[in-house]
Design a protein that fits this description.
Rossmann fold; 6-stranded parallel sheet; single chain; N-(1-d-carboxylethyl)-l-norvaline Dehydrogenase, domain 2; 17 helices; alpha/beta; about 15% strand
Length: about 450
Amino acid sequence: MKITVVGTGYVGLVSGTCFAETGNQVICVDIDKKKVDKLSLGQVTIYEPGLEKIFLRNTKEGRLTFTTSLEDAIKEAAVIMLALPTPPGEDGSADLQYILGVADHLGKIIKDYKVIVDKSTVPVGTADKVKAAIAKNAKVEFDVVSNPEFLREGVAVEDFMKPDRVVIGTTSERARKVMNDLYAPFVRQGNPLIFMDEKSAELTKYAANSFLATKITFMNEIARLCELFDADVDMIRKGMGSDGRIGKRFLFPGIGYGGSCFPKDVQALARSSKEVNYHFKILDSVMEVNETQKLHLMPSIKAFFNNDLKGKKIALWGLAFKPNTDDIREAPALYMIKELLAAGAIVATHDPEAMNNVKKVIGDTITYAESQYDTLQDADALVIATEWSEFRTPDFNKISSLLKNKAIFDGRNLFDLKQMEDLGFHYVSIGRRVVKQN
Ligand code: NAD
């Protein structure tokens, strides 16, 4: 099948590459010329495990190409996928200017039947708006399908190639057949293709992300209670998670959720609800708790230094909003850095993949070290903000010898309390007892 993917970011590049991998002819379009030039030269523009290998195979075999021209890209396409940004607008609602701008353009340039697929996360009713924007100028038949994407950054290729489910919102039989053929290679193991109407598909994506953000936030509040009651959130997590109705996953407390999806999607669903005069109360609480959770370690850090962080050097491990990605959008680490700098601290950071992206945003207000241990030279304490696997079993002797104070503030509960005690660290984590130095 001939496919055009519009928008070559995390979702567009992974989707385009994976569709090429199953034998389709894929053209990816982006307005960012630098990005298109790099991709055309065979350079992957994001860090995503497993992507480079299949990207190189498919570009080499000519099944995956890149352009800045929407008009050239869609000429022969049967399917046009929109993987465009939907950032929060000023009032928290999803900003549809990118989607509707492209829809308007498509109406002017399509010359035969196309299936136009909305892969971006968009509010209920967007498929209708896209239809209307195209119909204003289109002289041929077309269908607009809602096909929200559920891939997770860090395991995006695996998620795309073997999705738990594919949700497809369409009431057109013609489009349904095309989508069925397109996804057949991805659901051979019996994972379902779930067909529904466009609005239900749009809402399914927001419901899933908002539920997951709520689950994380619920555990963060249980962790806060554990700290007050002197209980251990790890034990509670295990006790709760063995109940099949609750499940073991997504019960890990930490310094809040971030990323390009949960924060904006929770906000957008709360906002959409208001538009139909419904106050989605849980979501307001989720947003409120998460805002404060990002800075949950700050009072403990300040208390350790008697409320005076001026001139103190803090080593910070982890900048990405989660491991295995270079994405720093809404990363809790950035909120911590802002607060630490405001208190007069000096911040030395390391992240395996995300340092370049952070440099672009906050430049040399902090330092960037080649290795995690380089951050510790003359540092007064270590803070951990992302659970990269290389941070899980560090050389504690090295940490002890480099740090001025043996103090670790761990926003991701990476270490065992007993081990920290035996090694003589002051160790603060989330929802667990504080290990104090003797
Ligand atoms: P992104 O910002 O990484 O990529 C968007 C791309 O679109 C950019 O490369 C940008 O240059 C390009 N673009 C903007 N305007 C354009 C135009 N007029 N024509 C062509 N290209 C244009 O965004 P993303 O993370 O891939 O997210 C895209 C959508 O998918 C969002 O709605 C997001 O909520 C949703 N989503 C994201 C994820 C994720 O993990 N990132 C997962 C599921 C769903």
